[in-house]
Design goal:
This protein is α/β, with parallel strands linked by helices and 253 residues long. The chain is built from nine helices and ten strands.
């Protein structure tokens, strides 16, 4: 069976992923995550699309009980190795975010840096991730997530935001479809062994009103959206078309 683009990319990419610029805001992001639950270390946390475990490991260092789940076995393997080196033991699982195996178990779920959502190939698949996050939470639980801000490409040309360094340059350029809000691009990089990889990426961008509606349909009550600043999430940052990502905070009734 042919691998999906996100499966192909993350087959042997864990070490390279940890060196990417967009993974360098972990400490500040965990500060914000902690603030959203008032530093209550009795709250169990679910990290959806946890990748190499950067948020899960840091939160475990701070005394939280964390479960991380990711589709990529190599990402989970590196997460476990990093956790062992750090002397902490989050529960890391290989699993599909579209069918999360949890029911009312967590007080907080996090889904940061496009953790699973919005990488799926259909809107229905992306929605199943939100529904699963809602099911995994206890009543009163909270989801903290980031996703691609559809206002961003509407506000500027693709060439402009490539030149601004907001997205990685792709050999085939970027094709943003106004009818589907999908960005298709060819990414050329190297895996952890230094071998070249070429991946045709296909990511879904969301406008705030659409994301809010989807979260409410997924079982959440209140939904708030803000601008997502790398390593410096804040409720003080109103979302603007200049923000590459949306920071969304949704509470389960």
């Amino acid at each position: 069976m042919t691998k999906k683009w996100y499966e192909a990319l993350f087959t042997d990419y864990a070490g390279t992923y940890d060196r990417e610029s967009f993974t360098q805001g972990t400490l500040g992001e965990c500060d914000f995550i902690e603030s959203e639950i008032g530093g209550d270390r009795s709250v169990p946390i679910l990290d959806i699309g946890c990748g190499t475990g950067r948020h899960a490991i840091e939160l475990a260092r701070r005394g939280y009980t964390v479960t991380g789940i990711d589709l990529s076995p190599s990402q989970i393997e590196r997460a476990k190795a990093k956790a062992a080196a750090a002397g902490v033991a989050p529960d890391f699982l290989v699993g599909d975010a579209r069918s999360l195996p949890f029911d009312g178990r967590f007080g907080l779920a996090v889904m940061i840096c496009e953790g699973a959502f919005p990488l799926m190939e259909t809107d229905e698949m992306n929605f199943e991730i939100l529904r699963g996050a809602g099911r995994a939470l206890r009543p009163g639980g909270k989801l903290v997530m980031t996703t691609l801000n559809g206002l961003f490409p509407l506000h500027r040309s693709v060439g402009q935001f490539e030149s601004e360094g907001m997205v990685e340059a792709a050999s085939g350029g970027h094709d943003f479809d106004l009818l589907t809000f999908r960005m298709r691009s060819r990414l050329e990089t190297r895996d952890d062994q230094g071998r070249p990889i070429e991946v045709d990426c296909d990511e879904r961008w969301y406008i705030p009103s659409e994301l809010t509606w989807l979260l409410k349909q997924a079982g959440f009550g209140s939904v708030e959206v803000f601008g997502a600043r790398l390593g410096a999430f804040s409720r003080a940052d109103a979302l603007t078309p200049d923000d590459f990502e949306i920071l969304a905070i949704a509470a389960k009734p």
